[in-house]
Amino acid sequence: MNSVPLLLLSFFCFGTEGSRFRGQSYLNGSSAGGLDQDPDLVLELELDLSAVFRRVDHRFLSVTIDASLASEERFMLLLRSQKLRTLARALSPAFLRFGGTRQDFMVFRPQRSQQLNAGLAAAESCRSTRLPWWLENQLKEDWTQQQLVLLKEEQQKSFRRVRFTELTVDLLHSFTNCSGLDLIFGLNALLRTADNSWNSSNARLLLQYCESKRYNMSWELGNEPNSFEKKAKVRVDGYQLGLDFVHLRKMMFKSKLYRDGGLYGPDVGQPRDHRVDLLDSFLQSGAKAIDACTWHQ
User: How far is CA 82 from CA 8, 30, 85, 128, 208, in A?
Assistant: First the structure.
């Protein structure tokens, strides 16, 4: 089947009422009813710019730091790189999501490593958080080897549990705060109870710590739940996942800091085939718990 590349420029402007757009397609001088009949098809559009049809959040274009960076917590120190922070500031305003496949294997262990914590003050300023050049170079060099380990886990579908301390959270918050970004932290949804509902005890510890530090941040629960069975041999249907989000929202509501905080999900893969069914059933039970419905392209 021939495909027709289209470049559609969307304009957002102030004004009064107006329609989205209207147009007519032509093929060999006559009207054509479809867009897949000829690669030379021309589509003429008349844009009405008198009104705003849809306004997106000013943080719409956002970025992710993959949770694999915390596979060994020392690599999180790379977030103190001044070069990285300078580049990140150019992306603001935006969300910074910390998540990915390995977020569903991460467990919070609130016991700060004194070795890693050396020189990391409780309330450090953005200018004081400098990573020594020699340490940055060493971490980058070690990371190339770490990537091979992570790739092997990915290929074998054998993911080890990752334990992280307050240091990971502190560095993430410092990085986003000093870069003008808004942090979304991805929680582990594969911590399950005997009846296959979400075990929230570890997340509660994390929320309590973040609230004690007054860290303003948003939350997600799980990454690509459609692949849970493949990567962890755990099956969670969409309706149950929605109930898990309701449970998390209730936890947040009990917190003065996170009562009105953002909660996003369920981060399914491309919404097609069985993933559409998962998303539909999730929304049946969890739609009112989330601030935005998310999926991956």
Answer: 38, 59, 5, 10, 29
Which residues does the chain have with pLDDT short of 70?
A: 1-39, 112-124
**CATH architecture for residues 63-295:** Alpha-Beta Barrel (3.20)
Give me Rg for the CA atoms of the chain: 23
Quickly list DSSP for 201-218: HHHHHHHHHHHHTT---E
How many angstroms separate the CA atoms of 260 and 153, rounded?
37
CA dihedral 179, 182, 188, 189 (to 10 degrees): -160
CA distance 261 to 252: 7
Spatial neighbors of 10 by CB under 8 A, at least 6 apart, are none
The CA-atom distances, in angstroms, between 241 and each of 101, 137, 279 are 17, 41, 10
List, for residues 23-70, the tens digit of each pLDDT value.
555 555 555 555 555 667 888 888 888 888 888 889 988 999 999 999
One-letter amino acid of 64:
T
CA dihedral angle for residue 35, residue 38, residue 44, residue 47, rounded to 10 degrees: 30
* Residue (of 250, 201, 234) closest to 104 by Cα position: 234
| Domain definitions of the chain by residue range | 1-55, 63-295
